[in-house]
Amino acid sequence: MRSYFIAGNWKMHKTVPESVALAKELVAGLRGCGEKLLVAPAFTALAAVAEVVKGTNILLGAQNMGPEEQGAHTGEVSVLMLKDLGVKVVILGHSERRHSYGEGDELINKKVLLALRHGLEPILCVGETLEEREGGRLEAIVGSQVERGLAGVSAEALKNVTIAYEPVWAIGTGKTATPEDADAVHAYIRKVLARLYGEAAAKAVCIQYGGSVKADNAVQLMAKPNIDGALVGGASLKADAFVPIARFRA
Ligand code: PGA
What we know:
With 250 residues, the chain is of the alpha/beta class. The chain has one domain (5-246): TIM Barrel (Alpha-Beta Barrel), CATH 3.20.20. Helix content is 44%, strand content 15%. It contains twelve helices and eight strands. An eight-stranded parallel barrel has the order 1-2-3-4-5-6-7-8, surrounded by seven helices. Helix 1 (16-29) packs parallel to helix 2, helix 7 packs across helix 9 and helix 9 (179-197) packs across helix 11 (215-222). The longest helix has 19 residues, at 179-197. The model has no long low-confidence stretch (mean pLDDT 97).
């Protein structure tokens, strides 16, 4: 049976004590859960949360990182610093980074390659805006975000990459893509991956869905053949909302 990758993106929420408290609740609530589990707290809480999740079935993730290893880059956090704290996964190209902070595919690709070079698993986020969807550009946008985000990634390294399909209009809005719509885009992403890496490699890539995932839509989403997990924002901020998503099979 395949295991799903369920990730919580805490975004710019929670102080250190609040993060530690949530992480402790998740450790207790998710003990024995067989899915691949991740929490991505704010940078400031990574060290404290690392202590809580150490030795458990929950991996530690970061929400972003700088495109360089080190140097004069005020305000950036380096891959080396993340590794130092026990971070295993890094979310890259989130739509909030793309749209609020002007990150483009080239910069995101640089981060993807850097993460892979240092043994971190990137979650590469892609997704169209409502305007792009309504203008019939969904496939062109998502396809090029995938292709450009993965430029220079070898077939071997692709095994460590997760793609998160997050339609921008569904993030934090309460609007979810229907499971059928989401699955169709995931299938399209797999088609793009197959063109770049071959069928077998494309089939093996984990593609998460993100955008207003909740306990009550998780089962239907995960039932779809091309949906391999979830990247959860709002509903990851409370244990009683996140645990049932991760335990959607129960
Ligand atoms: P949401 O966020 O679950 O609050 O819609 C998802 C995300 O941005 O990763």
